[in-house]
Automatic annotation (TrEMBL):
Signal sequence coordinates: 1-26
Species, as recorded: Cinchona calisaya
Top-rank lineage group of the source organism: Eukaryota
Cross-referenced SUPFAM superfamilies: L domain-like
Keyword Cell membrane belongs to the record: yes
GO terms (BP aspect): defense response; response to other organism
InterPro entries the record matches: Leu-rich_rpt (IPR001611), Leu-rich_rpt_typical-subtyp (IPR003591), LRR_dom_sf (IPR032675), PGIP (IPR051848)
Protein name as it appears in the record: Protein TOO MANY MOUTHS
One Pfam family from the record: LRR_8
């Protein structure tokens, strides 16, 4: 449920970004109104060629003879007067989805973009979707100004990531997400030391994560999720001191979390779900004091839950489901006062739910289902009401609820027996337990408030990392 909300916010943010980008484009062209709008004829011709490779509007050359002229210019083009000469230059191209020009069915990757010497940013979103094409660079090219290259959701963009991309020395944002790129990640990419964001997610990349990844000292966001990467998480990842977001989920990574991860002191979001990572949490994980999201479902961990995670004061989401965890739930987790989501379902956890969990004042989603937890559920009625359907304790035959807590329909939703109701499954496991103990952690009901307040950080986080 929080997941679908997450994606809803993602979509809203995307929309905001698009409206903002078209707005800023219009504004820049307006600034040119008073000044000269002459272009270098070579640059104009290159631009016409790019247009003809991509656009379904084939009259463009005739209808827009002066592409940078305000009012006559095409949405999706931004021009700049660099001040060095008396000319305007194309600084941004944006193709694919409205309001930008759509790409024709036969559109292929226009390597001539690399011949526009003042181009700073390029966006091809849902552009190459009918005709197979590959990313290619001309043998010689002049542009060293390119700061952002973003190609997303191009279902016919296939082939390798060319190692020649490493000659784009000014590149800060490289997004090649949701295409059909294959082969391994060329290690040369990691010589682009201006890179702030590298997103190669949702492709079919194979091979290892090159150790050279540690060279990207300025990197803020690294997303290699949803590929077929193998091998270990290189220890050099610990050199990325500026890194805020690390997403390696849904690959085939093996080994364990590298010890060096403790040096990522700016990390806010880490996702390692759906890999083949095993056992062992480095003790130093407690040093990640800026961490807000720790997402690591679906790995064959088969170890005990690391109590160190209880030291991560800023943690808002902790997901460790479907990973074969054994032993008890560390009571240190109840120190996570900002925790809104805790997912520990489908493990092999035993023992009781820590009594102190009742004092998790920001918790909104708690899933402990399908474990071997036993004993009395230590939550009072206001806690149970606050979480409502977002509390899942089902599939723990040894758990039971005290009748007064279970009053109303909630006990059905929880899928937990009322203590004493079933002599076989619960009765023998119930230990004597004082009611006052459970009720001393009274919390007021503010579920709608918590829903809103926990979503805001997620939205902000996405805003930070969305470079489309
Ligand atoms: C808890 O979260 C709120 C907002 O999400 C933030 O203002 C506050 O600083 C956080 N507290 C800690 C201890 O991180
Ligand atoms: C808890 O996890 C189980 C198993 O993954 C899932 O089926 C269930 O919907 C989850 N419950 C809640 C309330 O999210
Ligand atoms: C359950 O709630 C009803 C009102 O909803 C109340 O009359 C009843 O006394 C409660 N039972 C217990 C055991 O608290
Ligand atoms: C539990 O079992 C005892 C006898 O073993 C029986 O007298 C009692 O009624 C049972 N309680 C319930 C709630 O089934």
């Amino acid at each position: 449920m929080s997941c679908s909300l997450f994606f809803l916010f993602l979509r809203i943010l995307l929309l905001l970004c698009f409206s903002f980008s078209s707005f800023s484009s219009a504004a820049t062209n307006k600034n040119l109104q008073a000044s000269n709008t002459n272009m270098d004829p070579h640059e104009t011709e290159t631009l016409f060629n790019i247009m003809e490779t991509l656009s379904s509007d084939q009259n463009w050359r005739v209808s827009h003879p002066n592409p940078c002229k305000p009012g006559s210019s095409w949405i999706g083009i931004e021009c700049k007067n660099t001040g060095h000469d008396n000319l305007v230059h194309v600084s941004r191209l944006d193709f694919g989805i409205p309001p930008n020009p759509s790409c024709k069915n036969t559109a292929t990757f226009p390597s001539e973009i690399f011949r526009l010497p003042h181009l700073e940013s390029v966006f091809f979103i849902q552009c190459f979707t009918r005709t197979k094409t590959t990313i290619s660079l001309p043998p010689q090219f002049s542009t060293s100004s390119l700061q952002q290259l973003s190609m997303r959701s191009n279902s016919e963009l296939v082939g390798l990531i060319p190692s020649q991309l490493s000659s784009l020395k000014s590149l800060q944002i490289l997004t090649l997400s949701q295409n059909l790129l294959t082969g391994s990640i060329p290690a040369e990419i990691f010589s682009l030391d201006s890179l702030l964001h590298l997103d190669l997610s949702y492709n079919m990349l194979t091979g290892i994560i090159p150790a050279q990844v540690g060279n990207l000292k300025s990197l803020v966001g690294l997303d290699l999720s949803y590929n077929k990467l193998t091998g270990i998480i290189p220890n050099t990842i610990g050199q990325l001191g500026m890194l805020q977001k690390l997403d390696l989920s849904s690959n085939e990574l093996t080994g364990s979390i590298p010890e060096s991860i403790q040096t990522l002191r700016s990390l806010v979001f880490i996702a390692l779900s759906s890999n083949k990572l095993r056992g062992f949490f480095p003790e130093g994980v407690s040093k990640l004091q800026t961490l807000q999201y720790f997402i690591m479902d679906d790995n064959p961990m088969f170890t005990s839950l690391p109590s160190e995670l209880g030291e991560l004061q800023k943690l808002q989401e902790l997901r460790l489901a479907n990973s074969g965890y054994t032993g008890t739930i560390p009571s240190t987790y109840s120190k996570l006062s900002n925790l809104s989501t805790l997912s520990l379902q489908n493990n092999q956890l035993t023992g009781e739910i820590p009594v102190s969990f009742g004092s998790l004042s920001h918790i909104y989603h708690l899933n402990l289902s399908r474990n071997f937890l036993a004993g009395v559920v230590p939550f009072n009625p206001s806690f149970l009401n606050r979480l409502g359907k977002n509390l899942d304790l089902s599939g723990n035959p040894g758990l039971c609820l005290i009748p007064s807590d279970a009053n109303g329909s909630k006990s059905n939703i929880l899928g937990v027996n009322v203590c004493g109701n079933n002599n076989k499954s619960a009765g023998s496991l119930i230990k004597p337990w004082k009611m006052s103990e459970a009720h001393q952690h009274g919390i007021t009901t503010k579920s709608s408030f918590f829903l809103v307040s926990t979503m805001i950080p997620v939205a902000l986080l996405n805003h930070l990392f969305l470079y489309i």
